[in-house]
Design goal:
single chain, about 450 residues, alpha+beta, Uridine Diphospho-n-acetylenolpyruvylglucosamine Reductase, domain 3, Alpha-Beta Plaits, 3 domains, eight-stranded antiparallel beta sheet, six-stranded antiparallel beta sheet, 16 strands
């Protein structure tokens, strides 16, 4: 087995090579982009000439400090690999997003969330330090005390300031099993009031929720346990989200809980036919988010767009006090279900590109589907953007965005972003935030 010193030496060698690659990109005049095998950005882009920076090898755990409960890891490590390693120590990342292919660096440069976020916040709020390859060709070590402008400006920058090569992230103790309780509600007001109380009491280890319709909503509380009378398995024939409707109580292994949504990509596996038992019986190796992403991206390239359908892939964050109002709008006007709901508490610290009010409980709504339409392309997505602005919410920029520039920069601090861009990517080696997250070229 490789030693920590050997990992460190290889990290330094690979980092130096990546700096050289970025300098070559600057000389070429082409914009730089990551060369990698995974992505959780769900927008189709027109092919463009770019200088690819090969970061695929930055996927190692450099050190687990069980005493301090931190992990020193490289930015392209997937949560699948990180969780596998931390569980060997009886630990888990404080926030472990729900898909195996999400990388730690990606979750920080975007906005990563999971059912522990009501306690620990978003993924970037669990990070203690980073080393970032910036557009000016430097690797900058940053933390709350060292280069704090970059540390607090990097989250939600989507690789437009640089790429996180190395991160130190907080871990929490984990028991072998997780006990789940699903509580049904018949009305949005009662559902969100209960969700708020559960988060305030903070007696659970995990809290999330699922909306199947206006009179069928479930709050799921989960707690660690040292034992279990029986354990469910949602990695093959049984489908997790359907179990919520039929089981009031459930037991999973800690690993099974973390990846409960991955097998069926929440519920989106239905689009690939693999929820049918006859097909599922022979599809076990393909039941994972990695497969679905590949099929989806291939279909985006090969299948013509339909004027009768609009892709609505959205994650939006709304203050919990306005959650019922958004829920009713979503079910009435957009008509997508099921919907994932995940509460989270915003930090008392300000992150420049995360327009969230400090110390406030939000709910994240995740909804992904095709909506029949007779309107112009983007009609429903724009409607959603207007509604969340009305309710004092924001959206995850990995999802479909239709903002015009003035509206976009009124939400995301253009002046502050401009200062960060001038400091860390003055030559525009990386695209700016609007170009990366909204434009489709």
């Amino acid at each position: 087995m490789d030693t920590a010193a050997e990992y460190e030496a290889r990290y330094q060698t690979r980092s130096a090579a990546l700096v050289a690659g970025l300098q070559a990109a600057r000389r070429s005049g082409l914009p730089a982009a990551l060369g990698k095998t995974t992505s959780n950005l769900f927008r189709h882009r027109q092919p463009a000439a770019r200088h690819r920076l090969d970061v695929r090898s930055f996927d190692h755990v450099l050190r687990i400090d069980a005493g301090r409960m931190t992990a020193d890891v490289e930015g392209m490590i997937t949560y699948e690999t990180l969780v596998e390693e931390t569980l060997r120590y009886g630990l888990l990342p404080a926030v472990a997003p729900q898909l195996k292919t999400i990388t730690l660096g990606g979750a920080v440069s975007g906005l990563g969330i999971e059912s522990s976020s009501f306690k620990y916040g978003l993924v970037h709020e669990t990070v203690e330090a980073m080393e970032i390859l910036t557009g000016n060709g430097d690797i900058v070590a940053c933390s709350a005390c060292r280069h704090p402008d970059l540390f607090f400006g990097f989250p939600n920058s989507y690789g437009t300031l640089g790429y996180a090569l190395r991160l130190t992230v907080r871990l929490v103790p984990a028991s072998p099993y997780v006990y789940l309780t699903h509580t049904r509600f018949l009305a949005p007001d009662d559902f969100f009031a209960h969700l708020a109380r559960v988060c305030e009491q903070a007696s659970a280890d995990f809290v999330d929720a699922t909306i199947f319709g206006k009179d069928e909503m479930y709050v799921t509380q989960a707690v660690f346990s040292d034992g279990a009378p029986e354990v469910s398995d949602y990695t093959y024939m049984d489908i997790y989200y359907r179990s919520i409707q039929r089981k009031q109580n459930d037991w999973l292994t800690a690993k099974g809980y973390i990846w409960r949504w991955d097998t069926d990509w929440f519920w989106c596996s239905k689009h690939f036919g693999v929820q049918k038992p006859a097909i599922r019986l022979f599809a076990r190796p393909a039941l994972n988010s990695r497969t679905y992403q590949r099929v989806m991206r291939l279909s985006q390239k090969l299948l013509p767009a339909s004027a009768a359908l609009e892709s609505v892939i959205q994650d939006v964050d709304v203050p919990i006090a306005r959650g019922a109002e958004f829920c009713e709008f979503l079910l009435r006007e957009i008509g997508i279900s099921p919907v994932w709901v995940c509460p989270f508490k915003s930090s008392d610290r300000t992150y420049d590109l995360c327009p969230l009010k400090p110390n406030q409980l939000y709910v994240n709504f995740g909804f992904w589907d095709m909506v029949p339409t007779t309107h112009e392309n983007g009609h429903y997505n724009r409607m959603i953007e207007r509604k969340i602005a009305e309710l004092g919410g924001v959206k995850g920029l990995y999802s479909a965005s239709y903002y015009d520039k003035p509206t976009f920069w009124s939400i995301y601090d253009k002046v502050r972003y401009g200062h960060l861009k001038q400091t860390y990517d003055p030559d525009g080696v990386f695209p700016d935030l609007y170009a990366k997250c909204v434009e489709r070229k």
